[in-house]
Amino acid sequence: MAHTPRVASAPAGTPTNISQGTKTRGGIGESTLRPDGTLKVTGEFAYSSDMWHEDMLWGHTLRSTVAHAEIRSIDIGEAVAMPGVYAVLTYDDLPAAMKNYGLEIKDTPVLAHGKVRHHGEPVALVAADHPETARRAAAKIRIDYVELPVITDEASATAPDAILVHEGRDDSHMGHVPHPNIVHRQPIIRGDADEAAKRADFVVRGEYTFGMQDQAFLGPESGLAVPSEDGGVELYVATQWLHSDLEQIAPVLGLPEEKVRMTLSGVGGAFGGREDISMQIHACLLALRTGKPVKIVYNRFESFFGHVHRHPAKLHYEHGATKDGKLTHMKCRIVLDGGAYASASPAVVGNASSLSVGPYAIEDVDIEAIALYTNNPPCGAMRGFGAVQACFAYEAQMDKLADKVGMDRVEFRQLNAMEQGTLLPTGQPCDSPAPVAELLRLVKARPMPPERQWLAADAEGSTVDVRALPGGLSNTTHGEGVVRGVGYAVGLKNVGFSEGFDDYSTARVRMEVINGEAVATVHTAMAEVGQGGVTVHAQIARTELGVSQVTIQPADTRVGSAGSSSASRQTYVTGGAVKNSCEAVREKVLELGRRKFGSYHPAWATAELLLEGGKVVTDGGEVLADLVDVLEDEAFDIELEWRHRPTEPFDLRTGQGNGHVQYSFAAHRAVVEVDTELGLVKVIELACAQDVGKALNPLSVLGQIQGGTTQGLGIAVMEEILVDPKTAKVRNPSFTDYLIPTILDTPTIPVDVLELADPHAPYGLRGIGEAPTLSSTPAVLAAIRNATGLELNRTPVRPEHLTGT
Amino acid sequence: MDFLRPASWEEALAAKAEHPTAVPIAGGTDVMVEINFDHRRPEYLLDLNRIGELTEWQVEQDHVRLGASVPYSAIMEHLRAELPGLALASHTVASPQIRNRGGVGGNLGTASPAGDAHPALLAAGAEVEAESVRGTRMIPIDDFYTGVKRNALAPDELIRAVRITKADGPQQYSKVGTRNAMVIAVCAFGLALHPETRTVRTGIGSAAPTPVRAKAAEDFLNAALDEGGFWESGRIITPSVAKQFAELASGACNPIDDVRGTAKYRRHAVGIMARRTLGWTWEQYRGAGRTLEGAA
């Protein structure tokens, strides 16, 4: 190991220890408050964009103005000559043999080389003493583009004469894809769908289109790279997975990983959009070149080009059912647009295919999912990850089929719901509770919100509150044209990284006596992106170690990987790692206690011992010793990796395999009011029921469910990145025209939480962050269909779709 | 970029005369966005925030003289009775923070067809008080909008105030956006009944290169109301009249397809809003209408 060099002075806005837990309570199952909550709501929290270092420069990225072009030449002369400019870098300046990065497939150039493949691709970098100078210098760089035809969909990607988005692919998927413009293909065949279709009394088919959603996190990509004495670099950055970044950054800098020291900075939301590298490598390159700290902060416009989006998709589904409502078979083909670079596309394909059947028991299936390479914006991880698109389609199918059979839509779903023991299309049994029918029952049993809530009688007569109507403050209706609709949906999401991935987390836990009190310190590399891990880790340490005071150290790469803050996995996996390391520390403490005090009380040898309230107690509650007396000057400090049950890859031909770790289920009932003349929608209520296994922090659980529900509402009625099909250019890269729900668009979200323990998971918990994002969208769509009678096979729904204009 | 900070209106006029390319800035709602997006790099910014009188208003006999920088939140709070259409339009402007800073002068200066105030000004009737070192002139609102984001101001002129006819009858304002708050107009419609002159005036936003009145619709409706004696009788307007009014309002649009909506939808929606706002104002005129809970 190289020595860790001293940094002259830590930049302002650098994360510090979060001390918490002055109470003796605050273990798991309690709604302890976020330690960063007050700072965030009062505007005091330091986000990565707030960091500052004396003598720092500002980096700026020049991005392509066209989607697909050869680069004939790049002239940086004028930019370099500008006063205040310290460096201008292009592909030719990259220091190492490795010039590309990528989550799985290293297909993404750090800076464009001879070609750009999407609108907004980074081509050159500038460092200057002022952000405005950097921006102006970048504008003086002359790039000679020769535009190429754009590939924008499956037809253009697989046409006989299609240009290859990536020439000479040698990645692991190349061997099994039917065309080099297809990133990955996953079929899943189980039973005999054609044969089973013969038993069907009713068959429904549908073509569904899912628009491109953005994560729309509020804190734009930003970070600060500080060169260090040993030729390495300290990188302070908002990300979702420090160690994955590190593995991609170090090779292109030509540095060993220990010379790239990363610290997580304040993250303003992620939702999958920070799984990929954005400004990390660029800032390091500029810092190493100039020998000065370099800060890069994207503005909102650039942020839309700075991260991947949710895959837009075309989905073709066929379902059959017998007269008595039993599903006979399902066939589907899901085409995901991965855009110009692979990002998480292979894993999204794995999820879309393996979860395409939804939470239903269907024995005979014929499934295919592919992701395309195109010249559209790159797409990758976003909350729900492949399962969201499928859920939108299969839930529309369930309504259509229930109507054909003549059954109540909820009862039809309950009749076909999977349960514990059901085999999924991959052949994997569901070996923990799967209360799908019960979740549907819970949302259906809720009382309906009152009708015509916009009317209130007062002394002067009746009053209209436009805030309760479609159009809201825009005052478009006082009740005219407004029709209510109700819709139901339920979804199935996997938890954790699947398909044989070594999905481990690391936790370091220290226990010692400080100022006469036994305290714990938890150190992980978990990216806190809002999920509440900093709260939950302290709760776990209190529960396992019986201490009040727990310090959560800033996440950095001085401790082993905690995996990604995605796939609903952090509480499960890094929480599991913290629990595991706490247990190891507890064993050490008890060992020490037995050595010191074992002879004074027989229970030291015979009883099950716990640490509670700062003491060693028997499982009967008898106090054996104070932790302070056991520990004295001793400190235990243990770092361990922890793994959940291993998974297997899916067979590339049949899709069979125990690919998933755990499943997560949520159901929604949406109540909407639609102004049928203007095509405007007000979602009145989105009731949710979800099984969470065990709510480690009930308040955080509600926050996750309400947040996921709202993000699902967004893609139902407003959120969409619009890409010009002729030029593949993004048309609405701003919050003026990429709309996300405001509080007036956000309905009441009553939640029923079930806690059916998963025996395989720590505390029985279930990953929860994504499931509510799945069923929210199709529930809203179903409710709008119910109100309008329209088929609506695409999301988001726009006013022109509802008015035929 | 030079930042000019005149302490008085006279200094501001002198600065504008000396630097005709100077871009006036008050709330910054439009100007700051354009600068942030690098769409505009003015040589000079002319900051009007030190000129207190621009945030004042006077209620006169038949009009309100509204200072160019009176924030939308003040219009909502203090001028609901005199300028009901503009107060409703103000509710639809952006967020509370922006409504505390932005004013009608900025909407007029930018002259975007999507500016929220324009349909209300057109429907109420208004004159823009433009001033330069050469003197003051009153520009009728109907002549103010000259093209996409262009207006009738001379390079050395600043907007001091807008004189808006006080309401002599019910006014309404509707705006379509694809979100229930804080949204740019896909299209908008303002309508004012003027019982004193027995006329109806309208304004359309975001559905033509400039804000426009639906003149043919107004003429048709004025004639129909007159011939049918509706003003005197206060009878419910015949549905066929309302329908034709809506169709003519729709026909007054000359919209485009863009990222916010289709031309076809805009025509359709303007027709719906015309019919509804006519219904609401007429109900109120008849004394039977529901009051509108103004929410801020």
Automatic annotation (TrEMBL), chain A:
Which residue stretches belong to region Disordered? Answer: 1-35
The cross-references to Pfam families, in alphabetical order and at most eight, read: Ald_Xan_dh_C, MoCoBD_1, MoCoBD_2
Biased composition (Polar residues) is annotated at 14-23
Record-linked InterPro entries: Ald_Oxase/Xan_DH_a/b, Ald_Oxase/Xan_DH_a/b_sf, Ald_Oxase/xanthine_DH-like, AldOxase/xan_DH_MoCoBD1, AldOxase/xan_DH_MoCoBD2, AldOxase/xan_DH_Mopterin-bd_sf
SMART domains assigned to the protein according to its UniProt record, in alphabetical order? Ald_Xan_dh_C
Top-rank taxon? Bacteria
Provide the Aldehyde oxidase/xanthine dehydrogenase a/b hammerhead domain boundaries: 42-149
GO MF annotations, alphabetized: iron ion binding; oxidoreductase activity
Q: What is this protein called?
A: Oxidoreductase
The upper taxonomy is: Bacteria, Bacillati, Actinomycetota, Actinomycetes, Kitasatosporales
Automatic annotation (TrEMBL), chain B:
**Gene3D superfamilies annotated for this entry?**
3.30.465.10, CO dehydrogenase flavoprotein, C-terminal domain, Uridine Diphospho-n-acetylenolpyruvylglucosamine Reductase, domain 2
**FAD-binding PCMH-type domain boundaries:** 1-169
| Keywords recorded for this protein, A-Z | FAD, Flavoprotein, Oxidoreductase
Q: Which SUPFAM superfamilies does the protein's record reference?
A: CO dehydrogenase flavoprotein C-terminal domain-like, FAD-binding/transporter-associated domain-like
Specify one Pfam family: FAD_binding_5
* GO molecular function annotations of the record: FAD binding; oxidoreductase activity
Q: What is this protein called?
A: CO/xanthine dehydrogenase FAD-binding subunit
